[in-house]
Amino acid sequence: MTFDEVPGWFMPIDQAAFSWILTHQNLTEPEGALVELGVFKGKSAILIGNFRRPGEVFTACDLFEDIATSEVADPGERRFFLSQSLTQLAFERCYLAFHADLPRIVRGASETVTRFVAPRTARFVHIDAGHTYDLVRRDLASARAMLRDTGVVAIADYRKPDTLGTAAAVWDAILNEGLKPILNTEFKLYATWGDPAPLQEVVRQGATEAGWCRVGDPVMIRGMPMLYLHRKPG
């Protein structure tokens, strides 16, 4: 199995953003937890696992096939993921095609993850679980509890027409709860409760060196700049 053959919706532009941010953390920060909420078949988890250092714990949380009976799952997402044969075994097989060991798997609702990850120990959290306003609000609250000051949260599907609950929860956190935007792509928004400036410089440098993508002029949101990372046309 090649990485491109792993099912999922993890686009090259976000693979690049994840890699630049995680590389920067590996070079400049002490050990910290890595967390993913909602893993599907493991495509983004596989990449995150590439950056796990000795002594670090990567926690992957998902309902997997329990989505069929979970009371917290959105009915529309339940139907979709059951149609995609979402199982823990499928995730494990994909992940082990690239790594010798599995991450710590938490099979349950995403809000349970804070039972396993100590407060203020995480350096990177990827949120791609439920997409209703209430679920994403809870996942952002979990991320805030887990992340240390320099930690980064990446939120999937923040702008899709059928996941506007995610958009509402994210902008609520940015406008009212101190979350500071770093950058956005067409698919994900990256933010921190710390200082976004060093990470924005990392992304600018990464895009310049990569050549196939670029950073547009920042958009100002209540005095906070947010970068837009996208492919170059043509």
User: What is the CATH H-level superfamily?
Assistant: Vaccinia Virus protein VP39
Oligomer: single chain
User: Share of helix among residues?
Assistant: 25-40%
Q: In angstroms, what is the radius of gyration?
A: 17 Å
| Largest beta-sheet characterization | 10 strands, mixed
β content, as a range? Answer: 15-25%
Which structural class fits the helix and strand makeup? alpha/beta
User: What sort of overall outline do the alpha carbons produce when their principal axes are compared?
Assistant: globular
Return the domain count.
1
What is the CATH level 1 assignment?
A: Alpha Beta
CATH architecture group name? 3-Layer(aba) Sandwich
- In sequence order, what are the helices and strands, one letter per element? HEHEHHEEHEHEEHEEE
Number of strands: 10
The termini sit apart by 30 Å
What is the mean predicted local confidence, pLDDT? 94
Keywords:
234 residues; alpha/beta; Rossmann fold; 10-stranded mixed β-sheet; 7 helices
